[in-house]
Amino acid sequence: MSFFKKITDSVSKGVTTATEKAQQTVEITKLNSQISGKRKEIDKLYAMIGESVYEGFLAHDLSTAEAKVMPRCEEISRIQEEIVALDARIKSIRNEKDCVCGKRVSEDTRFCPSCGHPFPAPEPVVPEEEPIQAEPQPADEEAAEEAGATAVELEKSEASRADQRQVCVNCGTPLYGDSHYCPACGQSTR
Description:
Elements: H1 2-58, H2 63-94, E1 96-98, E2 104-106, H3 138-164
Antiparallel strand pairs: 1-2
Pfam family, one: Zn_Ribbon_1
InterPro entries: Zinc_ribbon_dom
Protein name: Zinc-ribbon domain-containing protein
């Protein structure tokens, strides 16, 4: 019976994870669509500004264009602020941050893999106390032993994959293919 429960729990976790990822993808797609629409609005405003300036040029008085241009410039600034807010929401969903070099990296990265820029250490998270669980029953102990063996096998397969990748000579962290610096300790990889 515990074998079926284990399979059910694994499938349930997989479905939950897949559902969350799908919801994130849908939300990110909607946000990117909104950003695209706002950029089109900005392009229209640019065209209107250009038209106003050209009309002022034809009238030999560019000061007349100022009354039309200023509100449109303010509108562009407002829309750009909205785009920044939408982009920040996307970074939050993806758990990412921007480096000073312009590269987007994972939120837990301590050093930029492209330029080596150090990020401040994240503040430690205080773990919540877990509720006390009942003693495992003999059938649960067998499942736990099977799960332990599976976890060991998984660790071995992950270790063999990690051995095929480049690792930091300073701390042993697996590196991205294009890393110039270790994201964990900042050591140069070149």
